[in-house]
Amino acid sequence: MVGELAAGQCTVEAAEEKLILSVARIGATALQAVMQARINQADADRATPPDLVREGRRPIWVRSLWGDFQIVRAYYSRKGGGEGQTPSDCLLQLWDSYTPGMAKVLCRLIPQMPFEQVAELLHSTTGATVGGRQVHRFTEGAADAARRWTAGIEPPEDPADRLYVSFDGTGVPMRRDCLVGRKGRGADGCAKTREMRLGCVFTQSGTDDQGHAIRDPDSTTYIAALLDSKLFGREIKAEAWRRGMADARRVVVITDGAKWCATIASTLFGRATHILDFYHAAEHLHSLAEAVFGQGREAEIHFRRWRRMLRRGEAPAIVAEARATHATAVDQEAIRRETTYLRNNIERMRYDQFLREGLFIGSGVIEAGCKTVVGNRAKRSGMQWSVPGVQNILDLRCTLLSGRMDQFLKHALAQRRAA
After folding, report:
1. Which of 125, 92, 88 is nearest to 109 (CA)?
2. Among 132, 180, 188, 419, whose CB has the most other CB atoms within 10 angstroms?
């Protein structure tokens, strides 16, 4: 091949492909030899237990980054009947039929791209022969293991100075059988999506030179769940507890003001500081300005002035000013609706105080999370999910984007070594 390349008879691309295949064959042969030698030694040293009968050796397929191969190991049947045993399997350290290296790569790729793309990437860069359906089946077990591991995380020893909790929802496209009985917002009234609720927790240790809040680097963790708000509330509270909410010096909850978000904040985070996202509040001010003055320049001028007032913590004055124009307003019903919204959120709109204290007043972290965590993986063109399918993917994606994947894999593979 070197000669062909030098003579111009072989392209660099073709040479690379040949090298990948050649190295993969060598790697598979070497790995098979190492694993088989370990099994042979263990089978030779093992005395047959009194309740078992050795029935020779049976093969098992191993899937590795170098390619697939077989390992044979001793098989034992029970004298009284029942399931047989292959005691040497624990030495293989397999995750299902996958080697540790292969399992690690799959756990990192699956949350980032569709199953078929994972398989194609592995085919083109390694000796792996796994297919899209096999990647799908692996996902189920990996996601279940990730959920169980996450549930057991203990809070950190060092409490956070300021711990933020935020949550929101975004629709994910679902299969028709997962939408039965659900109403949609479209003209036909048929639902095409279901709301995936996303929560995040992050910390803050200080501010910049201008006193603006700064999020601690790599401090954001996520959870996602296709649950009703009551059950989701338990999940986000559990995540906050894992992050050290019980010992944090201050806990802040930021939401967009949706009813289900406000309910979770008041019932499960009653001792926290509740902040209504400034930008959502400003959207209501814009609607209020148009309700009073109609669409046009006058409404824009008042909106901008009210927005500055809102940032200064003058929401009560805005409500009073808007209500004073009620009789001559363009849309009186909209005024009632928007001023009621503002009055109900007065305590959560003390932005002047929050800013003086160096707190975040926007829900940008969770807004971005809805796109990066959920949208970029679960809302691609043509996707339609089952409930367990999308939940499995997003559980692994949350593990990855929360910076927990390395810890999870270390734990999962250690369990297999100890089995």
Report:
1. 125
2. 132
Task: Give the list of residues 6+ apart from residue 335 with CB closer than 8 angstroms, or none.
Answer: 288, 291, 292, 322, 323, 325, 326, 329
Q: What are phi and psi for residue 112, nearest 5 degrees?
A: -110, -20
Q: How far apart are CA 174 and CA 193, in angstroms?
A: 5
List all residues 6 or more positions away from 379 whose beta carbon is below 8 Å from its beta carbon: 170, 171, 172, 173
Q: Specify whether the CB–CB gap between 101 and 65 falls below 8 A.
A: yes
- Name the token pair of 4: 């062909």
* Strands in 18-51 per DSSP E: none
Q: How far apart are CA 241 and CA 223, in angstroms?
A: 13
Distance CA 144, CA 95 (A): 13
For the chain, what percentages of helix, strand and coil (3-state, to nearest 5) are there?
Answer: 55, 20, 30
Q: 351: which 2 tokens?
A: 């932005």
194: left (phi over 0), alpha (psi -120 to 50) or beta: beta
Length reported for the chain: 419
Among the listed residues 274, 334, 335, 277, the one whose alpha carbon sits nearest the alpha carbon of residue 310: 277
Amino acid identity for residue 333 in this structure: E
Could you tell me if 180 and 269 are in contact, meaning their C-beta atoms sit under 8 angstroms apart? no
* 337-355 residue pLDDT tens: 999 999 999 999 999 999 9
Tell me the whole-structure pTM to 2 decimals: 0.91
**What tokens were used for 312?**
């200064």
Tens of pLDDT along 283-301? 999 999 998 888 999 999 9
